[in-house]
Amino acid sequence: MMLADLFDEDDFRDSLIKMGVGVSSNMSVEECVAFINENADAEVRLVLKVWAQERLMEAGLLQPEVKEALEILCE
Fold first, then answer.
1. Alpha-carbon span 34 to 31, nearest angstrom
2. 67 located within any domain
3. Which domain of life does the UniProt lineage start with (predicted)?
4. Is residue 1 part of a domain?
5. Residues paired with residue 64 on neighbouring β-strands, in sequence order
6. Which of 13, 70, 72, 75 fits a disulfide with 52 by CB distance 3.0 to 4.6 angstroms?
């Protein structure tokens, strides 16, 4: 039996931290998106949009809150 890897809140936040977005390790997915909307410049938003599109296209399970956040970053 193969187990699917779930991309959850921790994975989402850790990915943003690794990309240098400036979110903190105790922020929720919603807080991360709000932080990005308030603080990210156009270049960072473009990088995040591409990343979010790639994440949504990859096989695997996304936590519902994470999927919604990725969709918002794609706008």
1. 5
2. yes
3. Bacteria
4. no
5. none
6. 70
Number of domains in the chain: 1
Local structure of 6: helix, strand or coil: strand
Single-letter amino acid code for the residue at 36 = I
Q: What are 27-68's pLDDT values in tens digits?
A: 999 999 999 999 999 999 999 999 999 999 987 889 999 999
Whether residue 4 has pLDDT greater than 70: no
Beta bridge partners of 54: none
**Residues 29, 65, 45, 20, Cα dihedral to 10°:** 40
Helices (H) and strands (E) in the chain, counts: 4, 2
pLDDT value of residue 60:
80
Question: Residue 26 sits in which domain range?
Answer: 6-73
